[in-house]
Batch of 2 targets.
Target 1
Amino acid sequence: MEGENETMTRIDRRKFIGAGLAGATVMWPLGHAFALTDSLSDLGGSIVSPPQATIYTAREIITLDPSRPVAKAVAVVNGRILWVGSLEEVVRILGDQPHSVDTTFADHVIVPGFVAQHDHPVLAALTMSSEILAIEDWVLPYGTARAVRDKQDFMDRLTQAVNKRSDPDEPVLSWGYHPAFYGPLTREELDSISAKRPILVWARSCHEMILNSATLRRGGVTEAVVDSFGATAKAQSNFDEGRFWEQGLFAVLPHIASMVATPERLRAGLELTRDYMHAKGITIGNEPGGILAKSVQDGVNVVFSSPDMPFRWSFIVDAKSIVAKYADDAQVVAESEKLASWYGGMTSLAPKQAKLFADGAIYSQLMQVRAPYLDGHEGEWMMDKKLFERAFHIYWDAGYQIHVHVNGDAGLDRVLDTLEVNLRRNPRYDHRTILMHFAVSAPDQVDRIKTLGAIVSGNPYYVTALADQYARVGLGPERADAMVRLGDLTRAGISWSLHSDMPMAPGDPLFLMWCAVNRVTPSGRVPGPHQRVSAEEALRGVTIEAAYSLKLEEQIGTIVPGKRANLTILEDNPLTVDPMSIKDVKVWGTVMEGRVLPTGQATSKASLEQPRDGRDKQETEFEHAALRHALNVAHTHL
Ligand SMILES: [Zn+2]
Ligand SMILES: [Zn+2]
């Protein structure tokens, strides 16, 4: 460990916590980055002649531009696309403009740069930097974390992970355990792996942790401490079994944050998340529901705002939290807009966009449904009706695009009702209200979505991961099999995109395409076959339609003259391979605003060794805020 990995020193940690945007060394405004890479002689030349162009040739270029769907060459100038066509045509158009032909991609297929419509970097960082022992494979830059087969497999692999560590005091955090798949897990079983070293097992849902005795000791969690929790938190804790879930997990958070969300773990995790997403061909991304703890955002900026970032990242205002905080409507908007100053360099606040929440999470089956759940349990609202309506009204009148997290058909009714009221009251052109996740819906709602001018961002992994189980439990086959009804949306002419919500699903656009095109579950079943979509529609869902949903369709999403030169370079054509192989198409790398960025630069897992030189109040607050943000994301999503 020591030597091959760098451990953050105390000074590094303080920089990570306190640096904010100053930590991102150079702030390059969009479009100016490339001037810095030109040599002086190039700059001299540019005064008298047009700038140097680079022509990339490829086996095939899929432009997603209906007027020129395929091409063989693309010319790039100053990070933008100048022309697309055959090589001869592009050379002819360039005429006497200085240019070079780059054949690096001659055997590859170029598609528009992938757009990560909706992911959660802090939660992804904390889970990805742990020992991943989950229900699915995670293909990471340093290797693949294979899906866990059963309880024994989990215990064996956790034991190996514990034993390979040199420092006997370093806590081991694992993520991905799923009691519904592997059965219950207790403190005693974790103690059998190690009685001395802290072991923390974070469930796949992120709603529960199982802690061994060494963790409880280090965190000062005694039976008396648990007894002092509030009634709900106490009811959602089991000291003997070392289990803490929901409010119990929030209550134990201050005791364990230093073993989970340290600045070094967050930084290493963010770097890993960055490399992971780049390896999946992502050229731009977005988190709806930005971080509201400035110290945590500053930490994220150290990695994500840096000019080295292989993709830009935007954040959407967490309007649910802001509207709950301020009674004055004008202040809600003013506070939302103030957040723009928290970002810079490669990060930004998505302009005039706000995130609201309707009903509960899909993974814990807390969405609001029209017909009751088969087992009689009830869904949850993430925002009270009054607060939701007030928030919608405020942001609607301020001209915002509103992104609404919604999972059930009754949740969708509430969102569409609210949208209709506001449209009637104050008609708006191209409001592009976005229905996010879109798990359970009813056929009659499709027409209404179209009529009201809303668009959809669906998570197609819900079908892959959950349709079999939900057909048996809670929803029944009819509702479970029609989840994320993308086929109906296509036939109705509604714009839809795909998102992974990482770490809710692997943040891998080709995998999302595979889910949407095949809708095949682990049992081999195809739920709702008529909701499958074509490979080209799925590709649009991770490029131009995702761009459209973020109001970036004039900048990115297709390969046409004038747009940013954002390209994803693939080893094969995802539109012509066997549909079951789409997820296996290899990513060579990306071109991001003209920068050629091959994947595979990451060499090893970043160090997660714990610091030994103590910590101060600022660090402790940082750790609490980071973990709290992660748990809040998990609480609304899983
Ligand atoms: Zn959500
Ligand atoms: Zn989300």
Target 2
Amino acid sequence: MAGGANTLYSAGIELAVRVIELLEINRDLVLARELIFRKYEFSPKAREMATLITNEVGRRWGVLNRMIEEVQEEPLSRSSSLLRAVLRVGAYEVYYNNKHPNYFLKALTPFFKKKRVKRGFINRVRYVLFGIKKFRIKPPQDIVEWAFWHLFFPQWASQRLIDQFGQEKALKLMEQMNQHPAMAVRVNTTKIGVRELASRFIERYAYELEISPIQPFIKLAKTYPVMRTPEYEAGYFTVQDPNTAVGVVKLLKLLPQEASILDACAAPGRKSSLIRQLRSDIRLFCNDISTMRMEKLINDFQRLELPLPYLTIADAAKPPFKIQFDAVHADLPCSGSGTWGKHPERKWLTTPERYLECVQTQRTILNSLVPLVKPGGILLFSTCSIWREENEENVRWLEENFPLKCIEMERLDPSGGSTGFFYALLKRTC
Ligand SMILES: C[S@@+](CC[C@H](N)C(=O)[O-])C[C@H]1O[C@@H](n2cnc3c(N)ncnc32)[C@H](O)[C@@H]1O
């Protein structure tokens, strides 16, 4: 490779640029990576490199945009989508990864040839990247601006975090969401013990791991390709964050033998299969509005070799049930702000008002689900949002408007790859 840029690096950044270009359209980094990795054949090492780079570009999305726009003195919207993607990846590589602009450009030469880009395009990239190399962050005026440049959070989000949690906790949360993403698996204890699977992971694949205090989970030190192992095929585990299991485990402790549960927004079925795995006696009904996501639930139950629940596909705001249940699980669609650690691009690609639309949807669904809880039964309400409006304020609204009493609620903070999660258990009083 000319100029010393090696082939692996060339492949890694080509993939990264393709992913970042697609991200602008589909606004989901995991999905963009999946689609690009499926379409273009590159080595696992190139994919690994592209995954790392695109995560970091996603995390700094708004900061990179600002740097580029300051250097080129022109909004990015005036550039083509390909130029924007090359500049974003290039700015990350030059500013944060200490790559020389010429090294980056030479590594992209084969890609530029495939794309038949003009000389002017390359000159523009070179000009901007040399500007980025000299870029200096101006002293921030306040903590929100400091968090923008140093913790990579949009101003509206850090301001909301400060308003809700106070400055100290907000800064801690932002730092936690920037930690290196870990992953966790839930052991399918109907097939294998937690310690036995942990030993296999260590002996066969040298995974670094620890057994989670939340059972039956194993926390892995980083994102390993666990879904390509024979153990995954054999249904020994499913990928799930332990924080998201706590509410379900507590609910099951409150329910008598052969109780009925309606999991109203169940797909892709992580928590439903946990219910089935921990309590085979439960009469489980799973519903979701999305057929595609419901297919994932069915596939996962089959892979885990767990008996399928009763299935319906319907809008939970118009539930097709004439019976009531001992428990209703409302794991509701939400702003997903608790997942920003794992999906760092989302904080930039959402709108500040998104959570308000979510509260509206959540209340519409809850309004229809509460009557399906038997008197004396339990409503388990949960979100993966960190915003008070979607969590504590919804619980308050439920207590004020329905015969429900909150018996427990908990907010589990996001950290590293762990999802920020909220759940509340409410008992129907009459
Ligand atoms: C947070 S996810 C549920 C995750 C799932 N409980 C699990 O543990 O794997 C929210 C789900 O709600 C579904 N959903 C969104 N709006 C809905 C509606 N109006 N009625 C039913 N399901 C809905 C989505 O398709 C999505 O699968």
